[in-house]
Amino acid sequence: MTNEHFEVLVIGGGPAAITMAKGLGTRVRMGVIRREAHSMIYCAMPYAVEGLLQPEKTLKADTLVTETGAHLIRDTVTGVDFGKKSVTTQAGNSYTWDKLVIATGAEPVLPPLKGHELEGVSTFKKEEEMFKVATMVEEGMENAVVIGAGAIGVELAQALAARGVHTVLADMADSVLPNLADPDMTAPAAEELQRLGIRLKLGRKALELRARENNPALIGGVVFDDGSIEKADLVVFAVGMRPEVSLFVGSGLEIARDGIIVDSRMRTSIEDVYAVGDCVSFTSAITGEPAGGKLATNAVPMGRVLAANLKGEDREYPGFINGAATKAGELFVGGTGMKEEEAKGHFQVICGYSEFTTTFPIMPGAKKARLKLLADSESGRIIGGQIVSGQPVTDKVDQMSMAIQFGLRVEDLLNFSYSSQPWQSFYPAHNLLVKAAEELSIQLSGPDRKPAALVEAR
Known about the structure:
Elements: E1 3-11, H1 15-24, E2 30-34, H2 45-50, H3 63-66, E3 71-74, E4 77-81, E5 86-89, E6 94-102, E7 106-108, E8 121-122, H4 127-138, E9 143-147, H5 151-162, E10 166-171, H6 183-195, E11 199-202, E12 206-212, E13 215-224, E14 229-231, E15 234-237, E16 241-243, E17 255-256, E18 259-261, E19 273-275, E20 280-283, E21 290-291, H7 296-310, E22 324-328, E23 331-337, H8 340-343, E24 349-357, E25 368-376, E26 382-389, H9 394-405, H10 410-414, H11 432-444
Parallel strand pairs: 1-2, 1-6, 2-3, 6-19, 8-15, 9-10, 9-15, 10-11, 18-20
Antiparallel strand pairs: 4-5, 5-6, 7-16, 12-13, 13-14, 17-18, 20-21, 22-23, 23-26, 24-25, 25-26
């Protein structure tokens, strides 16, 4: 039985924990307790199923933690005593700490539908789930239903279709990628998915999972609210995440519906106890109200802020902006900040559009790029943005996120200083962000002015 003491003890081994190890591992005696066999590159999992990379490539090396000087402990925490500053584990060990960091992440939601226990029904986040789906594909699975048309669902559906699996992608929303971008921006992505052979079932709710007639233990189909039944050898739910905080229920730690409540310095309601990453409840950087933000790109800066503060600095996490991107067929789709309908509950929303090409139009291979920018008409503040392009979009998403994070207004973007080069941008005469800002500026200038027509990319 082990009994060790750490200056900083982290429960969890995901992106936030790894970030903290990089920031603190050489400075303090630090322990990281991870229950999983490996930390995962979650966003690469669909591409492993597709066969673009070996599944083992999605497993992060333990050296990401151990080479920092931190101690990696492969075990499961079964009890926490905040008064004694100690934890106990499944292996019968105990560890004490000066500072405790909770980074237990989130678990994918598996709705309690009738039949959810059937073999072949899964979520898609864990290592064993990835290997299971990949194995089923290798063994010749014929039919799959992916429920949830967010980024993971869209990417997994493409992976399955690329491997010859008849794939249905379903969602209660009327559009694909509903949490990433507005329907007017994602419609081309839906067309691309259909071009790839994926059958879309949007605006429909799964009611029941049915077993095969010849084997009551295996999934056979999904019943939807329109009465249709879709055949399935595999059903994957990609409908959202919930914080993994079960260990702390009833412990005195303040917990909201979306996770452990922390302040901007990642402090919880208990002294010397902190929380970072997907297990926390925090606020939108735009509205200041509680908001979802279960992304690695949020977990990492949270871990970075806390590591700096534990070294004696005084930094604050500004809140979620939630920039993200994905790929649908030949299109790249990204979004950040608030979407139009969501924003209307907080602001007087105006939208500006721009549409150019990804290179000088005279260059070979020029592809269309369309951008949508959202602003508050009262303040002129940028509150959201989306882009669809034939080339990667994360750089544009990051530019829009920066505009939101630093409170830029429409007039600020009118003066945006940008670069241009024939292979990498539209003509020097214009820029996607500036053009969209000009469209917004026309609307801000008076109620009788109308936005200019979109520029057609040729």
